[in-house]
Amino acid sequence: MRKLVVAALILTLLLPSVLADQNETQENLYTLVVPTYYDMLFVTGSFGSGTAARLQIDLAPTTAFNFDVGAGANYDLFAQTNSTALSIDANLNSLFLGTSGIGLNVDADISYKSYTLQLGGMQGFYGFGVDPLEFDTSIELNFSPYASVGIGRIYDISRLKELQLMMRHLDIEPTAERLKQAAMVRYRRNEYLNRFTDYITENHVAYYQHLADAFGASQKMLDLLFIDQAQAYQFEVGRYAGMQYGWELEARLRPTIDYRGYRLDPKTHFILNLDLMGRYAAFAMDEQLYYYARVLLSPGMLSDGSTSFIFTTNVLGQVRYLPPNVPWYVDGSLSIDFDTTQATRKFQLNLGGRFNYMIHPLFIAYAGLELAVNDSFTTQSLLAFTAGGTIRLR
Q1: Cα angle for residues 277, 281, 284 (degrees, 5° grid)
Q2: Rounded to two decimals, what is the model's pTM?
Q3: Tens-place pLDDT, residues 14-33
Q4: How buried is residue 49: exposed, middle or buried, by Cβ count under 10 Å (0-12/13-18/19+)?
């Protein structure tokens, strides 16, 4: 009995240092950037179900003849190096001509960022892009290019956390080297799965086999392929959704041309904004507490026949309590907005919290609290308590 007590005391003393060592190993990989490249181009008919040409003859009550041809296309590109990232998402939703007339509908988001600046001895970056470009013939135009400069860098670490979770579920020891090698594959998942081929199954087999090899568990390729079907994994992966790490300060100059033909008083709006944004994401309490904060200040000028000063701001906060080795976690969020362009209310606040509990892999439950003040800039304010979940009975 005395030996058991001594052993328990030793484990109690050593556990914090073991957790700290594991967290330090993980943190060394938080800033990992893996070069990757993929692009895709699809062309299809734009009249639904891939139809590119439509000939229609009306027989009754009147006789008419209509013939139209149309096409659409989608292009996606993502190219990342250790210091740059280019993203293009362009959609030709519809281009048609015929007896019905001529029409064009497009939208696109383009961004480029380079972390090659040195500003005051700190890592800086610059970027430019379009967010968004939307055009629909005679109805809508929304064009908002931007240029930005800043310091710091934010990293997406949700995928790294997912890898650690996979290892735990598959009884694989998450060593630093093994985790790094797996990340080198996982971070290129879209590159693997979107390679151009006439037999896309090859892409999936290659990806999951390389991931299993990186884990040092080649024989568990099928387990990795279907791990997202495991109920316990589905629940626990929610602990890490959207996680980021680091900090960033950015100034962005953003002119906008905005026209909506369906407005009661259609006018072209010319807007010039200076977006000042700061983001910070980190952990506390040996990574049991995750928190994220973002502050956005956006002064600007609006011209729609007259010129006026506009100002919007948003404060966003998120906190997540992640106690180890228990089947529950807690999410909290706060959002505060102020917008001088709103008519009814110029201020709104949303506060929420949610307790997520896996009673059993077949029984997931939650309880939450929501507080909204001037919801959606209206006169409505509310306090709501929510509870629910899912259970499979047979």
Answers
A1: 150
A2: 0.86
A3: 444 444 445 555 678 999 99
A4: exposed
